[in-house]
Specification:
Length: 697
């Protein structure tokens, strides 16, 4: 039972004042949790910050840096009616003047916020335009009262479509108000030695920083939280391992009949890396020891076939396998790839997602229970309690970091001694995997299938949009399909952002009904329908935000346009680009950027042009982050971790491991007083599953 002390943190986010049911969906997407809880928001740490302490005069202000300037409002120049021109406002201080530029905002509203003759404080970036100072859409327009409330350092958070930074800040304030004082969950001597703040203080400092050390990833507040998470994870691993060793595994030996049939049915030869991975897996499956193996391979390296062959191994022995994917689209795609091959080999497979309901679902479940299905492919739906296998021997989890430990365990528990195969496209260095996961075995698909051509990647300024659209037209005429990726779905805070809906309208005007649109605000059914139209070739252009799934496979798509590429991280650009170059035809990726580019953005785009090796790109990403950011971002986190960052917190891992081993060697059931602290920590960091091993027996 979770201690009542933690209840305020585990309450649904909608229990906070000002967060209605309408906000639940965008928060669920942001926090990757359904339904989102107060704790999930508190653990949503900043990806950057704005230093509001700089208060130069207009003459002193350095262009393109964040400043807060005190000015007098001089005059308004509203946009001429009917034109798309901006509203301009002239302001000044004793040292110079500045023009404010607002698009799409009512003149009356602006004149109320900025009355002529009044003093106002403006937060934002000044740019020079023809030698004149200009500020487009200030972040803040404040009067004296507003200035008094302005935080000295303002955290910047990752956002999703449908959620503004103001809404997030207000929600965060409400969540911080719920923070209880918890007893110390970490070894007290360690906390003293490191000089760490308490859990509550740590979160308050990061979300309401007074100085840079408060918000820095390497600062004591963040270090503490990262350690908590790593320590909880190491405890879970140690407990799980003890349990798995106790239960043991079962040797499954097939005769090679099915997998050789599958191989014959393949339209291509397996790569050496695929062969090696399959051989590793066969050995593991054939051994008494329970398999725990990670299959790591860049996008497009061919993990699905390896998963199918693994399933074939256990089916030969009359046992069952399950393949779980994080989304409906991915699960369906796996099923489409696998079904014909399985049919050719006589392996019976079925698909189970949230959409299979009623009679068909009941039939499927009874076939599964009687052993008439060899391989079940699906989403989270496969771990529902009423899904019962006759004899599950192998659980395969695709994009493993998108699932919690509990979900992976829930799947493998459906078979008493099931082997576990985890798959991921996120490259993690081998040494780090060993430190993170201890004795997990590793197979890598470093080699791409033959015939793949390097994706011709070019950076193109947005000024050349027209030429880009013509290139799309040529690609269509040649029979190809096209992805067009945009960063946000609707005009949000910055009106200058390209939006998927606008781009969709423009492309539709030009290319007609062949254009489809997917973005995060569509209902799951609509999203799948649009994806399906594109997969089937009915739609030729897919305009999308980043919801285009990592694993989606449309070999006929050979052109990808990424609009505002400068806004995407390197790893994300690489993942997106991996949607093309999946067939044998040459593919192109156009990175449309808005000039001028910053140094880091320039380096990122250059790396994208130079390399298509996911591992090399991941390393460069880390290096650039090291140079560019005081803060990491979610992307440089350990996959599957919320608080810890790979580039900064690795040194904490060893300590976390040692401490976990220490406490468990003293007290394997965490029964004594320090055990209470550890249990509290496990709950706090969502490691409830591990608790089962403590209460049993
Ligand atoms: P990922 O590792 O990203 O999951 P997939 O399994 O989706 O990759 O494979 C990507 C594409 O490569 C698919 O179209 C698949 O059929 C194809 N493919 C897989 N293995 C080979 C191979 N050995 N030779 C040629 N094509 C292959
Ligand atoms: Mg895949």
């Amino acid at each position: 039972m979770r201690p009542a002390l933690l209840d305020p943190l585990f309450a649904p986010l909608t229990s906070l004042k000002g967060i209605g049911p309408k906000m639940e969906r965008p928060f669920a997407r942001l926090l990757d949790r359904e339904p989102p809880r107060v704790l999930d928001l508190l653990f949503h740490l900043p990806s950057g910050f704005v230093d509001r302490r700089a208060r130069p005069t207009l003459a002193e202000a350095v262009p393109d840096t964040d400043v807060t300037v005190e000015v007098r409002v001089e005059a308004h120049f509203p946009a001429p009616p009917g034109r798309r021109a901006p509203h301009r406002t002239l302001v000044s201080d004793g040292t110079g003047d500045l023009t404010l530029v607002h698009f799409h905002l009512d003149a009356a509203v602006l004149e109320r916020m900025l009355p002529v003759g009044a003093t106002r404080w403006l937060c934002g970036r000044i740019t020079l335009y023809d030698g004149m100072r200009q500020m487009t859409h200030p972040d803040r327009i404040l009067d004296a009262a507003g200035l008094a409330r302005l935080p000295p350092i303002e955290p910047v958070y990752p956002l999703v479509e449908g959620l503004g930074s103001g809404q997030l800040r207000r929600a965060m304030d409400a969540a911080l108000g719920r923070l209880p004082d918890l007893p110390e969950t970490l070894p007290p001597d360690l906390v003293v030695e490191k000089g760490w703040p308490t859990f509550k203080q740590a979160l308050e400092r990061i979300h309401r920083p007074q100085r840079l050390a408060d918000i820095a990833v390497a600062g004591p507040a963040w270090q503490r939280l990262a350690f908590e998470e790593l320590y909880a994870h190491q405890l879970t691993l140690a407990l799980t391992r003890a349990q798995q060793t106790a239960v043991g595994g079962q040797a499954t030996t097939g005769d090679g009949r099915l997998i050789s049939k599958i191989e014959t049915a393949l339209p291509f030869a397996l790569t050496a890396a695929q062969r090696a991975a399959i051989a590793d897996i066969r050995v593991d499956i054939g051994s008494e020891k329970r398999m725990l193996r990670l299959l790591q391979g860049d996008v497009g390296s061919g993990k699905t076939i390896v998963a199918l062959m693994a399933a074939g191994c256990v089916a030969e022995a009359g046992r069952q396998a399950a393949l779980m994917a994080p989304t409906e689209v991915l699960a369906r795609q796996h099923h489409e790839t696998i079904a014909p091959l399985a049919a050719a080999a006589g392996l019976r497979c079925a698909l189970l997602t949230g959409r299979e309901k009623g009679r068909p679902r009941a039939t499927l479940l009874s076939d599964l229970a009687s052993g008439h299905i060899d391989l079940l492919i699906g989403t989270h739906a496969v771990i529902q309690p009423d899904v019962v296998f006759r004899d599950l021997a192998l659980a395969i989890v695709d994009e493993q970091h998108r699932f919690g430990v509990e979900q992976r365990l829930a799947l493998s528990r459906k078979g008493e001694t099931a082997d576990l195969l985890l798959m991921t496209a996120t490259p993690i260095p081998r040494t780090l995997i060993l430190t993170l996961f201890g004795d997990m075995a590793l197979s890598e698909l470093r080699e791409k299938p033959p015939g793949r051509q390097k994706i011709d990647t070019r950076a193109v300024s947005l000024d050349r949009l027209e030429e880009t659209t013509e290139a799309v037209g040529r690609a269509l005429a040649g029979g190809a399909q096209v992805y067009w990726i945009c960063p946000l779905v609707e005009e949000s805070e910055h009106t200058d952002l390209a939006t998927a809906t606008d781009r969709f309208a423009a492309l539709q005007e030009r290319f007609g009904a062949r254009v489809a649109l997917v973005h995060g605000r569509l209902a799951a059914g609509e999203k799948d329908a649009a994806m399906a139209r594109f997969s089937s070739g009915e739609a030729r252009i897919l305009v999308a935000t980043t919801v285009v799934e990592v694993g989606v496979n449309v070999p006929n798509a050979t052109l990808m346009v990424i609009e505002h590429a400068e806004r995407f991280g390197l790893a994300q650009l690489h993942q997106l680009r991996g949607r093309v170059g999946r067939g044998d035809k040459p593919s192109t990726c156009l990175l449309l950027y808005r000039a001028p580019l910053g140094e880091i953005a320039k380096a990122r785009l250059a790396m994208m042009r130079a390399s298509d090796d996911g591992f090399a790109i991941a390393e460069e990403d880390l290096r650039l982050r090291g140079e560019g950011d005081v803060l990491g971002t979610r992307q440089s986190g350990f996959p599957g971790f919320t608080l810890a960052r790979m580039d900064v917190h690795v040194p904490l891992l060893t300590e976390a491991r040692t401490r976990a081993a220490q406490i468990l060697s003293l007290d394997a059931r965490l029964a004594a007083e320090h055990g209470d602290a550890a249990r509290l920590l496990l709950y706090l960091h969502g490691r409830d599953a591990a608790m089962r091993f403590l209460s049993a027996g």
